[in-house]
Design brief:
Length: 623
């Protein structure tokens, strides 16, 4: 049910949210808003001393973040939001920092500011214009006097670490708070009430409202366009006239007025889906031909130089580079009257193969393995399984042993793909929970050990055994970091057949989605037998929402799976509960993988079992 008429107007459309904060996403989706998340690449580096007040800084950062997304994807969507917490509240860097922050707040009233920017995008015949409506919300929060013991107990719960201000008012942190003056949701992460009022002004504004002003500044129609994957079903253009929704009644009038009005007939969301595969293949091809690597070693190169270095035709290279520029992967600039190409900041960081956060391995896996599978998607849908045989001429019973590890070259490429994702997301998974009670971990299917090294880096008291198939373990040195941590060791074996190493924490990162419930029962009962009460099980996957509607990334990945499936937290919890593991914490990391921490219950302690089994998701704490 939608109580707010403005939100209900937006609910049939897709809004782009330039922040991936789980708390903001939750507030907005609880309000019935549908949106697509495109996290902003704008770094929060504005000089705070230049701003008169915390809220000026918050609003300006919000604006820059939203505009960055709007500029990067101008034809994708036209309503962008971003919120940012102000100067007073930032995330602690470590436990000591959390202590400093929280002890400063003890017994005092402080302010929480959220800056929000709504970017309205306007297509002119040649380019795109942006208008920004921004605002901030302030809420005052008074903390109780906090004893040292309380402070450290709270810090050791792990909750403060990813929270602005070092506390989460909606969870354990609520116990520290004496009172709140103002909008409670603003402290949680998003000022919903103020946001709805602003939307009201934009949609139903009286003559002097900001939205009206925006409209009067131009004779042309301002539009909010729905787009991106989920918006495909309702990708119509909505027109605003004098701030009113006139999408139906005045359509004719607008078609007559403006040259851009023919754009009403373009289903932008569908067009972006039509072109999606071309964009992916552009990225894959530029990576495969090492465009980002050659530009990295020379900083900037002319078209002819790039063509020479990648051993390709000048005409073909020109098309590829221009497409890459249009996608924001490369930049073309003038240097002494000559055009040169160079990597964008993101390309240098994520696409150059030698970069520590390179996704190159995963991109090449997508090009060489996933792309051929997707070209047989129709068959995969008819038959309900992946198409390795059709794509690669070889039938497979076990995707790893029969397909990925059939040839050394394919194996290294697959391991490289896992390695690259694990290096980008591993730190967030490793720091998702307080793991201080655990001393030995076993990373089941831990592949190259990239994730294990992140765990030992984050937890000085923890050692990790990587358990994987012998074919994988024999290649481990290929991926070993320069300064390998001797707390990481490797054991070869088959997790369906062999004994597992003993540990007090088991890690299952990207394992469960690959297998059917029946096969997982084999692995999980083995794990259950290994675990004494109190043992931990950390599952890292892309978690589906409970309605299994998003994120698309997980559902698209499932299309080329052989036998596994993507699951929601409840589905994972049900699967693991059968084997005596109870869900304790969930962390939506905002990175490529989320994390859930389960604990093995004592089967003799019926009280604990009953208490947790019926409502494990409700009782699990959302980090
Ligand atoms: N956990 C790693 C990560 O998140 O980066 C790798 C995930 S990868 C999708 C799955 C891993 O499970 C591969 O390293 C694969 O070799 C391993 N694996 C598959 N079947 C296995 C088996 N029967 N026994 C042991 N490991 C297996």
């Amino acid at each position: 049910m939608l109580l707010n008429p403005v939100i209900s107007k937006l609910s049939g459309k897709l809004v782009v949210l330039a922040s991936a904060s789980p708390r903001r996403l939750e507030i907005l989706s609880n309000a019935g808003l549908r949106f697509e998340v495109v996290p902003s690449w704008f770094k929060e580096t504005l000089d705070k001393s230049l701003f008169k007040s915390p809220y000026d800084y918050a609003v300006e950062t919000a604006k820059q973040k939203a505009l960055e997304v709007a500029h990067r994807m101008p034809f994708v969507s036209c309503l962008y939001l971003y919120t940012v917490d102000g100067l007073i509240l930032e995330k602690p860097t470590d436990k000591q920092d959390a202590y400093r922050m929280l002890s400063r707040l003890s017994g005092k009233e402080h302010s929480v500011f959220t800056g929000v920017a709504i970017v309205l995008c306007h297509d002119k015949s040649s380019d795109t214009d942006y208008k920004v409506v921004d605002f901030y919300e302030e809420t005052k929060v008074k903390f109780a006097e906090l004893s040292e013991e309380m402070l450290w107990e709270y810090i050791n719960s792990g909750e403060p670490m990813d929270k602005a201000g070092g506390y989460g008012i909606q969870a354990l942190g609520g116990m520290l708070v004496e009172y709140v003056k103002g909008d409670f949701l603003n402290v949680v992460g998003f000022p919903l009430n103020h946001f709805c009022k602003q939307l009201g002004l934009i949609f139903n504004s009286p003559p002097e409202s900001p939205a009206h002003k925006i409209k009067r500044e131009s004779d042309e129609a301002w539009s909010l366009v729905n787009s991106l994957s989920e918006g495909a079903a309702n990708g119509e253009v909505e027109l605003l006239e004098n701030g009113k929704d006139v999408s139906q009644s005045s359509m004719q009038e607008h078609i007559v007025i403006g040259p851009e009005c023919s754009r009403q007939d373009i289903p932008h969301s569908i067009v972006s889906l039509l072109d999606g595969f071309k964009a992916s293949k552009t990225l894959f091809t530029a990576s495969k031909l090492k465009v980002f690597d050659v530009l990295n070693s020379s900083n900037s190169l002319t078209l002819e130089e790039v063509a020479g270095q990648i051993n390709a035709s000048v005409l073909g290279t020109e098309r590829l580079l221009e497409a890459a520029v249009s996608l924001g992967l490369l930049e073309r600039v003038k240097q002494q009257n000559t055009s040169v190409y160079r990597n964008t900041e993101q390309a240098s960081r994520f696409l150059v193969s030698e970069s520590p956060e390179s996704l190159n391995g995963y991109i090449l896996h997508c090009n060489d393995m996933v792309w051929p599978l997707f070209s047989h998607l129709e068959n995969a849908v008819r038959e309900g399984t992946s198409q390795h045989e059709l794509a690669f001429g070889k039938k497979n019973e076990d995707v790893f042993q029969d397909a990925y590890y059939s040839k050394d070259e394919v194996k290294i490429r697959f391991m490289d793909a896992m390695h690259s994702i694990a290096r980008v997301t591993g730190k967030d998974v490793a720091t998702a929970f307080d793991l201080s009670p655990y001393k030995t971990a076993c990373d089941i299917g831990g592949c190259t050990g990239a994730m294990a090294y992140e765990f030992t880096k984050a937890h000085p008291g923890l050692s990790v055994i990587v358990f994987d198939l012998p074919q994988v373990i024999e290649m481990r040195r290929h991926f070993q970091p320069k300064e390998a941590d001797d707390r990481v060791s490797f054991v070869a074996g088959d997790f369906f057949k062999d004994d597992l190493p003993k540990a007090d924490l088991y890690i299952l990162a990207r394992i469960l989605h690959d297998w059917s419930d029946e096969k997982l029962d084999v692995l999980l009962s083995k794990l259950s037998k290994m675990c004494t009460p109190g043992c931990g099980l950390l599952v890292s996957e892309i978690l589906l929402d409970e309605e299994r509607k998003s994120p698309s990334r997980a559902l698209l990945q499932a299309l080329s799976m052989t036998e596994g499936k993507q699951r929601s937290p409840t589905e994972y919890s049900d699967l693991l509960q059968k084997h005596g593991f109870t869900l304790k914490h969930i962390n939506h990391t905002d990175n490529l993988l989320d994390a859930m921490l389960f604990v093995k219950e004592d089967p003799n302690d019926r009280r604990t079992l009953l208490g947790c089994s019926s409502a494990s998701i409700e009782t699990a704490e959302l980090e």
